[in-house]
Each structure stands twice: as C-alpha cells, then as structure tokens.
Amino acid sequence: MNEVDIALRRLRGRVTSQDGTPIAYERYGDGPPLVLVGGALGTAATDRPLGLLLARRFSVLAYDRRGRGGSGDTGPYSVEREFEDLAAVVAEAGGEPALHGTGTGGALVLSALAAGLPAGPVSVSVYEPPYSAEAAARHRGAVALLDRGRRGAALDLFLADSTVPAELRPGVAELAHTLAYDHAVLGDGTVPARHLARVHARVLVVDGGASPAGARRAARALTAALPRARHRTLTGQTHEVAPHVLAPVLEEFLAEERETSEAA
User: Fold this and answer.
1) Domain containing 99: what range?
2) Which of 21, 78, 209, 226 has the largest CB neighbor count within 10 A?
3) Is 248 part of any domain?
4) CA–CA gap between residue 47 and residue 103 (Å, rounded)
5) Is residue 225 in some structural domain?
6) Into how many domains does the chain fold?
7) Do residues 13 and 27 lie in contact, with contact meaning Cβ atoms separated by under 8 Å?
C-alpha cells in the first residue's frame, strides 16, 4: 500500500484528557502502534508526511497538542496537563505503543516518561529536542513578545533561523500562543539529567549533521543523560529533517527494539 492509499484511509477522532479537554488525532496504517508527538507550532498535519511513510509498517497515531488544530485548550496551562493528554492518546493507540517526538515534542515525551506516563512504551525515538541556551532564549524572547500582545513579532523571532517559507508563516499565526507552552516544556534549556535518569525505555536520539553545533551537543548530552539511549546523526540533515530520510531510521530502530522486547 502506498502513501496515497494510506492517506485515503486516514481516520480522525478525539479522546478526552483528564481535565475534559478534547484532543484531536488522526490514525493511519496497520501494525504495531506508534504515537507521533509534534514540536513547536506543529500539528498532526505537520507530522503527516513522516506518519504516512511509517504507516507502511505501523499503526500511526498523530495528534494535535492542546491549543492546536482540532484540540481544546482548557486553562490554566500546565506541562502536567500535556502529560495527561499524551497518556490519553497512548491509551487510544492501544497496546504498548512506541513514541516518537520531534523538537519540543521529544522533550515532552521524555519528561512525561520520567514523570511516570502510564502504559510505558516499548521504545522511544526523538529528533533534536532543543535543549540549548540558544533555543531557550528564543522561546523566552517569543513569550515576552506574546505577553505584550505582539504575536507577529514573536513568530518572526522564533522562526528567524527557520527554513519555513515566508508565505507559509501566516498558517501558523494562530498557534503563536502555544510557544509559551513549549517554553514551559523546555524550561531553561539545560538537559534535566536527574529527571531523565528515571526514563527506562530504550531511546534513540537523532540529530542532523548540518544542524547547528549547539543542537548536536544537546543530542549527545541527552544521550549521555538517559539510562538506555543510543545516538544517530543523519548526514546533511537540519532541524527541518526530511521525512524520507528519518522514516527508515525510525522504522529500523523501532522494529528492532520491538523484536528484542518480544524475545525477552
């Protein structure tokens, strides 16, 4: 089955988080369950190109984090409520789903696991969680502008080094307020080593060979902080990783780890 056929069979639904917030998701593919967790300014649609590639071997569930897309945004915001959202999605996925988080979504996944996310996954992969002083400063600056009602300026600051084309930026303007949520997930930008020492899932930490040096240092520091992690660099890739490059790496890792788990 190709990506077009899988896309046509895409199913949409909603789950209810613990505080009553509806969380929208889309599901496609057949096989072992895999949940995708998006990063800053991302939605389930953002993850769709990667998800459709992975759906050839997995049952992929991508969701809109709270405040984005079709999901609700019950206040006041807290990172713990995002943990509850993820737990509801994991339960909806069924079984023991693997998790993949991109950018700040990766930091959210790891923090949720360290906090005791129910139904722990077989394996986890993350792509460049932005644990760096530079990323934290960019988030902090964007939030300061949001607090002054300057949504456009906040987006411009956050996307200053991004390859997102200018003509596509109006499409993410409605998500600007969620930059504050990602800032809360990221914290001060340092790798929370003591907290992440509680993560016992097997983790693949991936970065891009053409990403800034700070992002690559963060990936290595994160790998060292996790009890059961390995590191992989994708030659020529940046933070906006190409789905067709990332998908086979995740597919190989997740399939291998699931086979190891089933044999244990």
Assistant:
1) 3-130+192-263
2) 226
3) yes
4) 12
5) yes
6) 1
7) yes
Q: Are 47 and 62 in contact (CB under 8 A)?
A: yes
Mean pLDDT of 192-200: 95
Residue 231's beta-bridge partner residues? 205
Query: Tens digit of pLDDT for each residue in 88-100?
Result: 999 999 988 999 9
Residue 82: closest CA among 34, 139, 37: 37
**Residue 165 confidence class, pLDDT cut points 50, 70, 90:** low
| Packing angle, helices 133-147 and 213-225, rounded to 10 | 110
Let me know: does 56 contact 1? Beta carbons within 8 Å.
yes
Q: Is residue 143 part of a domain?
A: no
Q: How many beta carbons lie within 10 A of that of residue 164, not counting itself?
A: 14
Q: Is residue 250 part of a domain?
A: yes
Query: Which CATH number is 27's domain given?
Result: 3.40.50.1820
Helix 179-186, helix 104-114: angle, nearest 10: 50
Here the tokens at position 50 are: 């990667």
